[in-house]
Amino acid sequence: MPDPVASPATQKAPRKLSQAVVIVHGVGEQRPMDTLRGFVQAVWSHDPARAPFYAHVADPADPAGEKINQSWITPDSRTSSYELRRITTPYDVDGRRTDFYELYWADITQGTTRSRLAAWVTNLLWRKPADIPADARKLYLVTLFAVIVVLCATLALATSVWQGYMSWAAGVLVTILASFIIWSVDRFGLPYFGDVAAYVRAEAATVEKRALIRDRGLRLLKRLMMDDTYDRIVLVSHSLGSMIASLADIVGRFQAPKTGGHPRQGQTEGDPRHRQGDARFRRFRMAGQAGRPRRFPA
User: Fold this and answer.
1) Where are the alpha helices (H) located in the chain, listed in sequence order?
2) Which region ranges are annotated with the description Disordered (predicted)?
3) 101 by DSSP, 3-state: which?
4) Which residues make beta-bridge pairs with 22?
5) pTM to 2 decimals?
6) How far apart are alpha carbons 165 and 170 in whole angstroms?
7) pLDDT at 11
8) Is 57 helix (H, G, I), strand (E, B) or coil?
9) Phi and psi dihedrals of 4, rounded to 5?
10) Which residue of 132, 194, 206, 216 is most buried, as measured by CB atoms within 10 A?
11) Comparing C-alpha atoms, which of 253, 207, 220 is closest to residue 81?
C-alpha cells in the first residue's frame, strides 16, 4: 500500500484592506446624515484620483456634469439607530475599501434652557483673562462687551422708570428691543451654544446627557473594533465633536482595564481575534495621540 502523500499546505489569500471612518458632528441643529454626506462628498465622491475608472458614475444631482466616485448607502445596526446609515465605497486605487459612520448626538443635548446658557456664559466671563486661550480672546472680549452693554442699558432703563422719565414711545421701543434679544437667544444662542453648555458643564442637569453621549460613542467604537473586517479605524471630529471624541472623553475611556481590549462573548484574552482587536486599538489610540493631520485616505 503506497505511503500517503502529504497535501501541500493551503495558503490563505491575503485579506483585502478595509477601514471604518467615524464622523462626530459639531454644534447646531444637526440633522442625521447631513455631516456624513458632506464629508463623504468632500473626501471621496469628488476626488476622481482616489477611485479606479470603473467606479466613476454619473452624479444623480447633475447627470450631465462631471462623474463622481461610486458609493452606496446601506442600513447598519452598529449605530443602533434607524435614522443613520452606513456609506460604503468600492476599493480605491490603493486597494482599500471604506465604510463611513456617523456618531450622532444632537438629539441628546436638546432642551437646554436660557438659565443654563446664562450660567455657562457667566462662568466663562468670570475667568481670568490670562486663562483664556489666545485664539479665543477676541470672542471673549466681544462677549464681555455685549454683556456690559446689556447691563448698562438695563440699568439706564430701570433708572428712567424709577424716576418717571420713560415715555410710552420709549417703552414700546424697549419692549421691541427686549423681544428681539430674546428671539436671537432662542434662535441662534440656544441651538449652537446650548449644546456646549449642556456638555462642558458637569452639573446635576447635564451629567446624564454627558454619559449618554459617551456611552453611544463607546458602543459604536467597540462594535467596530471587534469587527475583523476592519484593519483600522479613523475618527474625524468637528467643533464640539472634537471634545466629545477627545482622549479625555470617548477615546480616553475606550481602553478596558488591564487588557486594553474588549473580548467578545465566548472569547478569552488569549484568543487570536481578541489580540487582533487589542492591536487595532493600540494603533487607533496612538493615531489619536499623535494629532498630526493626515490626508484621507492614507
Assistant:
1) 34-40, 114-125, 137-163, 168-184, 190-200, 207-225, 240-244, 272-290
2) 258-298
3) strand
4) 101, 235
5) 0.69
6) 10
7) 54
8) strand
9) -65, 140
10) 194
11) 220
User: pLDDT means per 10 residues in the chain (298 residues)?
Assistant: 50 72 88 93 92 90 86 89 92 93 90 78 79 76 80 75 68 76 78 78 81 89 88 89 72 52 46 50 45 39
- Cell numbers for 72, please give them: 452606496
d(CA 245, CA 29): 19
The total of other beta-carbon atoms located within 10 Å of residue 99's CB is 21
Which of 35, 29, 30, 27 shows the shortest CA–CA distance to 200? 27
Amino acid at the residue 214: R
> Nine-digit cell at 241?
465633536
Using CB atoms within 10 A of its CB, is residue 65 exposed (0-12), middle (13-18) or buried (19+)? Answer: exposed
- Supply φ then ψ for residue 243, to 5 degrees: -70, -40
List the grid coordinates of 128: 481670568
Q: Which residue has the cell 475667568?
A: 127
Cell of 229: 473586517
